[in-house]
Write a structure and sequence with these properties.
4 helices; 109 residues; mainly alpha; single chain
Length: 109
């Protein structure tokens, strides 16, 4: 494999979890804020639930792929596993958001 190609591929591999984690966080936060600010919040709940399921699936696929790549590309293993760990940060955040949705009354921002 040509070194430049490997370098570009590795850059994408290391950038992908940042994009996925950031997008999951941003969209989840936007949905939560909309839920809390909308007096007719029931309409957003199915969308939020679908997002949580989709985000869980996408994050799981990316996480699993990173773990596999970490064992394949041993010279980048530490960096890859660190980025995989970043995806795990979204789990407690998502749990907190779900807790807020099911245990609070929405308020007007």
């Amino acid at each position: 494999m040509h070194p430049t190609y490997h370098s570009q591929s590795m850059q994408w591999l290391l950038r992908a979890p940042l994009i996925v984690a950031g997008a999951s966080f941003a969209i989840g936060t936007a949905l939560l804020l909309y839920f809390l600010s909308d007096p007719h919040f029931e309409s957003i709940m199915p969308i939020g639930l679908c997002f949580v399921v989709l985000a869980f699936f996408v994050n799981s696929v990316v996480f699993t792929s990173l773990i596999i790549c970490g064992f394949i590309f041993k010279e980048y293993q530490k960096e890859i596993f660190t980025r995989a760990g970043l995806l795990l940060v979204n789990i407690p955040i998502a749990a907190l958001y779900v807790y807020i949705v099911f245990n609070s009354d929405p308020f007007i921002l």
